[in-house]
Amino acid sequence: SGDWSSDVCSSDLRLIDRSKLQRAVDKLIDKVRKERKSRAEREGISGICFDGRKDECFTLKDNNGQKYRVKKKGRENHIVVTSEPSGEYLFHVTPEEISAEQKAQKYSPSENICDCLLKGCHEYGVNENNLMFLGADSTPENTGHKAGVITLIEKKLKRRLIWCICDLHTN
Fold it and tell me: Which pTM value belongs to this model?
C-alpha cells in the first residue's frame, strides 16, 4: 500500500508503535536520499552553492525515563548546500568541533567545512569532475585566498573553479 500512514497505523485500534513509525520515517528518508543521489548522477550537477549559520543547539537528556531539552554550550555551524543549475536543496552538513589535536596541527574551521562539503558531495552523488563553480557569501572563511573554503576545495580538486559570490554581502 503506497500510503506510509496505513502501513504504520494498526487497522483495528489506530495505535502507532514508536519503533514502527521511526522505521517508516527512516525508510522514507532513505528513499528520498537515494532519489536525490540518482538525480544528481543522472543530471550532472555543474555547481554547488553553500551557506552557513551558527545556531544554538539543544540535546535531549534522559532523567529516569523522562526526556527534556538541554541547551548545548556554544553554537553549531549548520551548512546548507544547493545544486546548480536547478537550485534545489541538495544536503546539509554540521561540521564536527575541531579537537585539541587538530588545533595543534593547525586544522582550520575552513578546512573542516571543506572536508564536510566534499564528503557530502561524494555521499550524494555529485561528481566532483563535473563541478565548474562554487557559490557562497563573501566571508573571509569562504573566500580567503590562502585558506578560504573555496580555495581549499580548488586545491583538493587540483583545478580552478569559477567563484560565484553573493552580491548582497559585498559593498
Answer: 0.70
